[in-house]
Write a structure and sequence with these properties.
Layout lengths: L12 H13 L10 E6 L2 E7 L9 H4 L2 H4 L16 H11 L8 E6 L3 H10 L3 E6 L4 H9 L3 E4 L7
Parallel strand pairs: 3-4, 4-5
Antiparallel strand pairs: 1-2, 1-3
Helix pairs in contact: 5-6
Length: 159
């Protein structure tokens, strides 16, 4: 007797949640980089976020990107961006709906910047799994100092 799905490999938990983060990133309205984030605890998704403008405001895909217009390198001058980062939006969504995130894991398609690292630390997120590196050594230092578990996810071959 044959079974449906026979021969298919079932993703591990990190792979599964990173795939969810990738799907979430498709909602991004950033013209420079599409990022998705998922907060998980006990193998349950608590909140998701993608990078884009605050609710109700025009998006960068509509009005352009000031950082791109000024040729500001990646990892610099976050304060002049009209968008929020995916990690920030995930934390905000959890807070908005009263979902505690202490002791959870953040899956992100890109390594958190130092602004997001500080928020993750104060939110009580204890583990970060990311796929693409980000040029922010301060972020790495802060998360290490806070004792966070930070893991660079590498998709299995063939994905």
């Amino acid at each position: 007797m044959s079974h449906i799905g026979e021969g298919l490999s079932r993703p591990g938990w990190d792979e599964y949640f990173m795939q969810v983060a990738e799907v979430v990133s498709r909602r991004s309205t950033c013209v420079r980089r599409n990022i998705g984030a998922v907060i998980v605890k006990d193998k349950r998704i608590l909140a998701t976020g993608y990078n884009g403008a605050p609710s109700g405001l025009l998006h960068c895909i509509d009005v352009g990107c000031l950082r791109a217009q000024l040729a500001i390198p990646s990892g610099e001058r976050h304060e002049i961006c009209r968008g929020l980062h995916a990690e920030q939006n995930a934390i905000i969504q959890a807070a908005k709906y009263g979902i505690p995130v202490q002791g959870s894991t953040m899956y992100s398609t890109t390594e958190p910047c130092s602004l997001c690292a500080k928020m993750l630390i104060n939110a009580g997120i204890t583990r970060v799994v990311y796929e693409d590196p980000y040029p922010d050594n301060l972020s790495r230092q802060l998360m290490k100092e806070a004792g966070m578990i930070v893991e660079h996810f590498k998709p299995p071959a063939g994905n």
